[in-house]
Write a structure and sequence with these properties.
alpha+beta, Diaminopimelate Epimerase, Chain A, domain 1, 6 helices, 18 strands, about 20% helix, about 40% strand, globular
Length: about 260
């Protein structure tokens, strides 16, 4: 089997050991799904991205330790970062990724990378049994996207102080749960946290796909389309969002932490 280059990248941060770590595999040929899932489980990061040249871009798939996912922002940012770093993209070129969520693009934006993603706005919904109890939260709003539940908390302090019961949260039928509130820091418009024990990650440190929902949610409430979000996990992460009619731009930076080769 040809060598498979693999990288670990911290996304939505400009410093190592912050933001959200993702593994990125540059596949020289297609591999079977059980092998991809095994690699993701071995990496044991929130996501492992697999890239394979296809047509005018790359086939991109994302695997959490326990399951493949349909949309992932931080591992897409990490993938674009690696392709540029390794000279597989011309300076200034727009990268195209063919994914389960359609064609996604990535282009340079200042000192970062801008991802073009589908918006996934939340519609008001009743919380499923056990959700608010598992979070220990009395929400101001509960909504549902095509992937996740969104809950608005009373304050940033409430978001930061959450200590979910992950065993109970794992029983809720959803990919993940977003909890958000207005930011107390004038540098940011909102804060959030993202919990997804159903796919093998209790708390995701800095989540791009959740901002496909958070962007439209806060744009409606704040009356502007350019927003800055801080994900208040232990590692922390910064995601800038530009909200359009049906798409969002997710803008962030990334840092390579290590690189190597898969031997199996």
């Amino acid at each position: 089997m040809p060598a498979v280059p693999i990288f670990a990248v911290d996304a939505f941060t400009d410093r190592p050991f912050r933001g959200n770590p993702a593994a990125v595999c540059l596949l020289p040929e297609p591999r079977e799904d059980p092998w991809l899932q095994s690699v993701a489980a071995e990496m044991n990061l929130s996501e492992t991205a697999f890239l394979l040249p296809e047509g005018d871009g790359y086939r991109l798939r994302w695997f959490a330790p326990a399951a493949e996912v349909a949309l992932c922002g931080h591992a897409t940012l990490a993938s674009a970062h690696v392709l540029r770093q390794e000279g597989r993209a011309a300076p200034g070129a727009v990268l195209r990724f063919h994914t389960r969520s359609g064609v996604l693009t990535a282009e340079p934006r200042g000192d970062g990378i801008a991802l073009d993603f589908p918006a996934t706005p939340a519609t008001a919904a009743q919380p499923p049994a056990g959700l608010t109890e598992a979070l220990g939260l009395a929400p101001r709003f509960v909504g549902r996207t095509r992937f996740d539940y969104l809950l608005e908390a009373e304050s940033e302090a409430t978001v930061r102080q959450l200590r979910p019961d992950f065993r109970r949260l794992r029983e809720v039928e959803t990919r993940g749960v977003i909890v958000t509130a207005r930011s107390d820091d004038p540098a940011f418009d909102f804060v959030s946290r993202f919990f997804c024990p159903a796919v093998g990650v209790d708390e995701d440190p800095a989540t791009g796909s959740s901002h496909c929902c958070l962007g439209p949610f806060w744009a409606d409430r704040l009356g502007r389309t350019a927003l800055a979000g801080y994900q208040a996990s232990a590692r922390g992460g910064v995601v800038r969002v530009e909200v359009g009619a049906e798409r969002v731009k997710l803008i962030g930076q990334a840092v390579t932490v290590w690189r190597g080769t898969l031997e199996v």
